[in-house]
Amino acid sequence: MARVLVVDDHADSREVMSLLLQRSGYEVRTAVNGRDALASVIDRTPDVMLLDLEMPEMNGVKLVEAIRSYHRLSSIPVIVLTGLGTGDLFEEAEALNVSSLLLKATTTMQQIRDAIRKALTEAPSSARTYIPEKWRGDSISPL
């Protein structure tokens, strides 16, 4: 069963997405912002991350940049699911190495499931099987 980390600061969005993904057969964990998500990723590496962009404390772009800067986390596939269709964050997200960039207003659940399957298929197998133990000597500065 693939592990999905849903990162969204809106509780309703997080809960609905979590429930729908669980019903689709995924193991789901959630995080309320980028800082919470980074701690979760370090604790247990997901197979794929479904990420909002606009969040307090650490936005989605900063989270992806932090994850990509650490070798052990750099190959986690990221699917951006955002309400933003324009603006600086959206443009920055387009420049990141993300699997898919989806808009909340126009994306169906089937499209999200398809994006997850695509991300899992394209991801290196080591990203899906490696679960780090306690990291010794690594400093995650955003925490």
Account of the protein in words:
With 143 residues, this protein is α/β, with parallel strands linked by helices. It has a single domain (3-124), classed as Response regulator (Rossmann fold, 3-Layer(aba) Sandwich), CATH 3.40.50.2300. Helices cover 41% and strands 16% of the residues. The chain is built from six helices and five strands; from the N terminus they run E-H-E-H-E-H-E-H-E-H-H. It has a five-stranded parallel beta sheet with strand order 2-1-3-4-5, with helices on both faces. Strand 4 (78-82), helix 4 (88-95) and strand 5 form a beta-alpha-beta unit. Helix 2 runs parallel beside helix 3. The longest helix has 14 residues, at 109-122. The chain starts with a strand and ends in a 14-residue tail after the last helix.
In the CATH hierarchy, what is the class? Alpha Beta
Main sheet summary: 5 strands, parallel
Radius of gyration: 14 Å
* Average pLDDT, all residues: 81
| Unreliable runs | 125-143
Query: How much helix, percentage-wise, in residues?
Result: 40-55%
Percent range for β-strand residues: 15-25%
N-to-C series of helices and strands: EHEHEHEHEHH
Structural class: alpha/beta
Structural features:
Rossmann fold; 16% strand; single chain; 5-stranded parallel sheet; alpha/beta; disordered C terminus; 6 helices; 143 residues
